[in-house]
Amino acid sequence: MNSILKEYDKKKGVLENLDRSLDTLINSLLKQKGIKAHQIQTRVKDRDSLEKKILAKQKYKSLDDITDVVGIRIITYFEDDVNKVAKVVEEEFDIDHENSVDKREIDTDRFGYRSLHYVASLNKNRTILSEYSDYGDFKFEFQIRSILQHSWAEIEHDLGYKGASEIPTSAKRTFYRVAALLEQADIEFVKLKSTISEYEGSLTYDIKANPSQIEINKASLIFFMSKNDNVINFENNVFGCEYGLVITESDVDSFAHDRLINRIKSLGIENIKQLEEFYLKNEELLKESLKSIFPQTGNTIRRGASVLILINYTFSSHKI
Q1: How many whole angstroms separate alpha carbon 303 and alpha carbon 238?
Q2: Distance in angstroms (rounded) separating the CA atoms of residues 126 and 78
Q3: Per-residue pLDDT tens over the stretch 278-316
Q4: How many C-beta atoms lie closer than 10 Å to residue 74's C-beta?
Q5: Among 9, 236, 22, which residue's Cα sits nearest to residue 118?
Q6: Distance CA 8, CA 11 (A)
Q7: CA separation (Å) from 242 to 35, 239, 249, 290, 291?
Q8: What is the sign, positive or negative, of the torsion defined by CA atoms of 161, 162, 166, 172?
Q9: Paired sense of beta strands 140-146 and 70-76, if any
């Protein structure tokens, strides 16, 4: 054991550098793939934890035998994103399949503990690069799970019970029920995401075909503000030509949509057709309101800002 700990002490600096490099690399890879993680955690196992593991397992001969000295935990919002992250890991790293395990397939006596574990190392395409050249001999462990799977694991750890054999009989029904609820919630959140995605995908056709049937909500409002021909023409002519502003694409989170929706509905506007009619009817009012705003706004403006300005101006002045 002493030889392993001495090796750990000697390599601690390199391990910490590897930890930081992996953190940067994983964040970059997921961003490139458009995968939004709830949390990415990296860590180097501390000396005390390492010593306890060596004593408990009684099988390690060198530091290289311990594959989780450096660990990366990726927590996703949705259960189906676990597989998306796993695909990135498999494509970008060398996987030690013999020591990796998909705990999502484990027996149900683990009360819902579902996590994908990969033991991996940097591939040759990376280790030939100077910034990764010191890490070619190191292995590390990925843990990938959804936020609900992570919540269960944390609660399970806090309770101190992990398997059915450890649970008092009087508590087993409750544990199974909670595990089933969390698992079902994971499934339902994926369904919810899919339903919203399908709705957003259908807006291009539905808004043009039946605008009076499209209620005002975040998705329909974003579509109207960024895609409506009348909004685009007005902003190109007024913002672009008259005021010389550069119109940038609207960021989904650049407007306080909830407050804006409430103000739109307070004006008696319930659907996209009514919103478009209101916008066209009040273009002159909108132009008037812009006089008190420009040129103080700078040289750029978000696409759809005219809708925000008109609604807020009308709401505050009660001019309809």
Answers
A1: 12
A2: 30
A3: 999 999 989 988 877 766 556 888 999 999 999 998 988
A4: 26
A5: 22
A6: 5
A7: 40, 6, 19, 11, 11
A8: positive
A9: parallel
CB 42 within 8 A of CB 112: no
CA distance 303 to 225: 7
Q: Per residue in 23-51, pLDDT tens?
A: 999 999 999 999 999 999 999 999 999 99
Cis peptide leading into residue 295 (ω within 30°): yes
Q: Are 33 and 91 in contact (CB under 8 A)?
A: no
Contact 211, 273 (CB under 8 A): yes
Q: Which structure tokens are listed for 125?
A: 């395409």
Question: Nearest Cα to 302, choosing from 263, 264, 258, 254?
Answer: 254
Looking up tokens 């291009």 gives 204
Angstrom distances, CA of residue 82 to CA of 16, 37, 178, 249, 283: 26, 10, 21, 30, 48
Whole-number Å distance between alpha carbons of 226 and 233: 11
The answer to whether the beta carbons of residues 60 and 66 sit under 8 Å apart is yes
Count of CB atoms situated within 10 Å of the CB of 100:
17
